[in-house]
Amino acid sequence: QVQLVESGGGLVQTGGSLKLSCEASGSISSMYVMGWYRQAPGKQRELIAHISTITTYYRDSVKGRFTISRDYARNTIYLQMNNLKPEDTAVYYCNAALVDDTYWGQGTQVTVSS
What we know:
With about 110 residues, the chain is an all-beta fold. Helices cover about 0% and strands about 55% of the residues.
């Protein structure tokens, strides 16, 4: 059984930084694509960034501000978020996917005050 546990969310002022972590327990091979999604109130969940052994992807709105990284030995991914904006306020979810096998974390709240 795979579990994804996020941490690192919180309240920060505009322009501040936060670093999210997501640790996967259970069997997650390096073949899984792991990533971060977010969902703001009243909006659909959206992909922010993902990372695999081959490539890294970022949503346009976070390019240059967010950095995703992965520690394969610790089955952990990170999301360093700099220059945060009020529109970044959302619940952030960790995801691991391989073909039709998908896992989600419980989410962590990020709130950016203006």
